[in-house]
Amino acid sequence: MKQIAIGLVVGALLLSVGQPAVAQQEEVGGRYTFTVVAARTMYDESSALQDAWTGGLEAEYNIQNWIALGGYLMAARPSTDGDFFPLVRLEFQDTVFLQTVSQQMTQIDYGAQVSFRAALDRFFFRGIGGVGGYVFNLDDARIATPAVPGTIDDKVTGLAWNIGAMVGYRFGRTGSVEFRVRDFIYTDFDRDKFAVSEPLLGAPDIPHPAENLPEKKATIHNIQLQLGFSFTVGGA
Prior knowledge:
By secondary structure, the chain is mainly β. It contains three helices and ten strands, in the order ααβββββββαβββ.
């Protein structure tokens, strides 16, 4: 996957050499495109994450009318699924409570991307690929009270790739709306880092009520359905 993404970027840059820059101005309407993105993220079933709403911004430099380079920044507030983690045992006099525990986190996705564009009158189609990283900032309550101080990291991070396709409609020369489907691929992923259960209150001898949970995976695929609103500036 890494070799394919790098090859697409290098190949696109080589092919863009020699294309008339004036065509880009006529087609796109500006050198710089900014996009506000609203999305629904459907996480990999093995991730222990529940689907969440996502928002973000993109900025691209239109090298030619068919290729652009830029970056993205996305944010979300997903919650974990407590069924994936050990039960917590709480005793009050002669009563024992067994509970699953989840947490809500702040997630950030960021990176660089390259997109390829083909237009048909006011409609246009884009393919896109990128590389960057993901960051999950864990719940403050979990960070503040670890079983052993210093043993719990407050962030979960890793390398991420993404690839997707889009169809859009252009309003005039500077505005457009796009519907997108993108796959954000997280590497070095470990869902166990999201466990909130206090080890000293665990109930390892009691069978977990959740059955047939997906196996852990180090690489997960998270599908985003995006709606983007774009405008271009910096025309000749």
